[in-house]
Amino acid sequence: MIDRAEVGHRDRVLRAYFEGRYWDGNEEFALKRELVLKSHDLLPEYPFLIDSDWEVYPNMAQTGQGDLVFADGAGCFAVVEVKWIDMMSTGDTASTRRTKKRKKVKEQAGWYRDVLASRLQDALKVEGYYFTNENRNQVIKV
User: Fold this and answer.
1) Rg of the chain over all Cα atoms, to the nearest angstrom
2) What CA–CA distance (Å, rounded) separates 1 from 14?
3) Do residues 52 and 11 touch, judged by C-beta distance below 8 A?
4) Containing H/E element for 116?
5) What pTM, to 2 d.p., does this model score?
6) Buried/exposed 75-93: b ≥16 CB within 10 Å, e otherwise
7) Strand blocks (E) in the chain
8) Greater model confidence, 117 or 59
9) DSSP 3-state assignment of 111?
């Protein structure tokens, strides 16, 4: 388990990174940055950002990377998966793509939650959430 001093240090370093990286043209990164900057309002029970782009299985990036991990500093964690959904395109194909992305982000959030829970067996609680540009004012629990 990560001690409270380490949690605070990680939070300061990661937040400084997200605050300072405003030029990125990647929509999904911009959405992730938006969540980090608003996380005290959107995830008030998890005030510390402790990881970003974490490997689901260490040294096996091809198996996936989780987006963000927040903590309360007392043994509870929140995994948050972020997904940009193209809301501008129209037609059946665009609608199908949006539906697939909505389904995928929910599945990933649940799967990453389970993986982190198995890794942090002494955690009091590990919850899974997702955040999309469709619902910018809420982080949705899975």
Assistant:
1) 15
2) 19
3) no
4) helix 92-119
5) 0.92
6) eebbbbbbbbbeeeeeeee
7) 48-55, 65-71, 76-83, 125-132, 140-141
8) 117
9) helix
Residue 35, amino acid:
L
Tokens of 129: 């959430």
Strands 76-83 and 125-132: parallel
Question: Measured between alpha carbons, how far is 103 from 70 in angstroms, rounded to an integer?
Answer: 22
Q: Which residues contact 137 (CB under 8 A, 6 or more apart)?
A: 42
State pLDDT tens for residues 76-89: 999 999 999 999 89
β-bridge partners, 88: none
CA dihedral 30, 130, 141, 92 (to 10 degrees): 120
Asked if residues 82 and 70 have their Cβ atoms less than 8 Å apart, the reply is no
| Total count of residues recorded for the chain | 142
88's tokens? 């501008």
For the chain, the first-to-last Cα distance in angstroms comes to 23
